[in-house]
């Protein structure tokens, strides 16, 4: 097996910082073109789902039904949402002869490939040049620039907001097995069209202090709505003061139910 241009002499993983320059170029004339879009596990974040369902012009629940596998994890409130590969050839449903048909809205892991971000903020290669021939090319990429070219920062921003919900859950090892809370959490994160109905077609607006500008933004943009959903969960699960109940509505029971 050939060593990649970022693997140490003993084959250990090399950690690279954002200013590191790595050699890589992916194009339709590489012999492995689209090989990496097959038989892989791509975990989708709420923002990945939002981008993909809009790119495909699907409602959130249609997208979830057709294109994902939802894996419940014991004692964890948030399931794993995985992109479903084709049953027959195990290829990604979005790959074509010409490449990725959802390229502008491809998920975070596809943007990062062949890099991965480590917990300490460094980067490493998740493959090598025996499989990814793009790593044999001579194009030099500074990681910081390359991430911007791949459109990663917006995904990182949204994933950071998502982590403000997931990190405290992990830290507190909250054992929430109330099905209503699970359903509300799942809807808020992954079924944004249903969450929009929940906000605008229930008594929600009557119960919380929301100014007109915020309401208008929520009506217009999915990104604002997802950020709002993160805040809603922080309020509902952790009791953070991200929402204010209208005086006329106090006191009420558990807000998330
Ligand atoms: S394996 Fe590497 S070079 Fe080949 S198509 Fe995928 S990213 Fe491009
Ligand atoms: S979404 Fe696009 S880049 Fe990602 S695996 Fe599918 S075809 Fe490949």
TrEMBL record:
This chain belongs to which protein, by name?
YkgJ family cysteine cluster protein
This chain's source organism reads Candidatus Desulfacyla euxinica
């Amino acid at each position: 097996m050939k060593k990649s241009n970022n693997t140490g002499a003993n084959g250990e993983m090399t950690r690279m910082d954002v200013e590191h320059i790595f050699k890589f170029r992916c194009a339709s004339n590489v012999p492995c073109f689209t090989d990496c879009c097959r038989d892989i596990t791509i975990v989708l974040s709420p923002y990945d789902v939002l981008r993909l369902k809009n790119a495909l012009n699907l409602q959130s629940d249609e997208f979830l039904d057709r294109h994902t596998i939802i894996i419940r994890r014991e004692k964890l409130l948030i399931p794993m949402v995985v992109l479903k590969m084709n049953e027959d050839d195990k290829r990604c449903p979005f790959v074509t002869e010409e490449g990725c048909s959802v390229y502008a809205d491809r998920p975070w892991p596809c943007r990062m490939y062949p890099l991965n971000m480590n917990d300490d903020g460094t980067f490493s290669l998740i493959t090598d040049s025996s499989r990814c021939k793009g790593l044999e090319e001579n194009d030099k990429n500074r990681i910081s620039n390359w991430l911007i070219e791949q459109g990663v920062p917006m995904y990182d921003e949204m994933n950071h907001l998502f982590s403000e919900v997931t990190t405290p859950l992990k830290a507190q090892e909250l054992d929430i097995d109330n099905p209503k809370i699970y359903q509300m959490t799942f809807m808020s994160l992954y079924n944004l069209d249903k969450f929009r109905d929940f906000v605008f077609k229930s008594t929600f607006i009557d119960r919380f202090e929301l100014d007109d500008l915020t309401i208008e933004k929520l009506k217009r943009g999915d990104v604002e709505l997802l950020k709002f959903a993160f805040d809603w969960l922080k309020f509902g699960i952790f009791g953070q003061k991200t929402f204010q109940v209208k005086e006329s509505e106090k006191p009420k029971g558990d807000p998330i139910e």
